[in-house]
Write the structure tokens for this entry.
Amino acid sequence: MEGQKIFMSQRQLQKLEVMGLVEVGKITLKEGAEKIGMSYRQTKRIRKRVQEKGGKGLIHGNTGNPSNHRMKEGIKAKVLHLSRKVYGEFNDQHFTEKLAEEEGIEVSRETVRMIRRAAGIGPKRKRRGKKHRKRRERRAQEGWMVLWDGSPHPWFGPDLPPCCLMAALDDATGSILAARFFVFEGTEGYLWLLWQIVTQYGIPISIYQDRHGSLKRNDDHWTLEEELAGRQEPTQVGQALRTLGIQPIFALSPQAKGRIERLFATLQDRLGAELHLAKVTTLPQGNDLLPAFIRRFNHRFAVAPRQSEQAWRSVPKTLDVDRVISFHYPTKVGLDNTVRLGDLLLDIPPGPLGRSYAKARVEVRQFLNGSWKVYYQDRLISKHPSTALQEPIRALRRNRSPAPALGAESHNWVYQASAQPIYDKPFGS
């Protein structure tokens, strides 16, 4: 402090004045302690410092010196550089986490916020005001209820065509169970999510979902036969849920799906920034990045369930999960021992002792890997190689043309027969 002017605060001046009154005997030390609002022992120590050093005894020794906790200018400059050049798409909290994970810089979110605002880097978006709505209480056990939905969004940048991220969320813990990018929200995505959930965790009790056409058939999609039968036939996904004994619960409004909608809002912020940082431009690249991101996300945001006992049901050993979670087409074999589904023609070989299956009712299944199998009375009678996955078509047994392969209607991407479209070109190329 030598050679440096130190100004005393009003509080320090008050203490000095009271100590002066004590020294000249106008008030006692006990009365002085009451005036400055301190204990007798503290006041006694202050008096001793004033006697030894005068007014300087009331000034802290580090006054005027830089704080030991002050961030070094080099680190501050590095944080600003990373914020501008590398992590510009990240919000304050996400950026703080990245500094610790990737750069080895341990700073608080508030410090990051102050550095950014002082440099004129504003928040990524304004915080939304809290809505006066009571949130539904989470289910008590993991596996009791699963929420799933799709989010169409320009995930890989505003200059690239949008695609759809489909994800499933456990209600009790808030952890992401499965997620994958698809060209659009459809039956393939929901079947893939269901397969991932059942094979990795087990069978949940219920699934909370919206009224998407892949999940609930609309009134104008029923045939006359179905109308007369009482509308009992579910969608492809609904049939798989019914076979597995999973109760579908339909949301009556978008607001009722608040938990999964908030998940997608967070993902559009955090995952979008991660995809931009990794320079992801294709669906395979995005799907390769998802597993590591999901692990970090669940570690950061998942909560413990209220009850430790899990509600997941084990898959029966006799259940063929791949067959249950597949595209299902009941139809009839033609007189030429073939099954025609739109433009697809499947040959049915003769059965035992040369038996012909002409006019027989059969079940055609397309698996998620694109392959085809034909069953007669629950017995496999024919296998066929993979083709591009088809979205379900109404009345295929009436030989209507099938839907185009996924993405073929609007994107110049290369599709290969697999559980997930594979694109060998960046978006927009």
User: Anything to note?
Assistant: Confidence is low (pLDDT under 50) at residues 394-429.
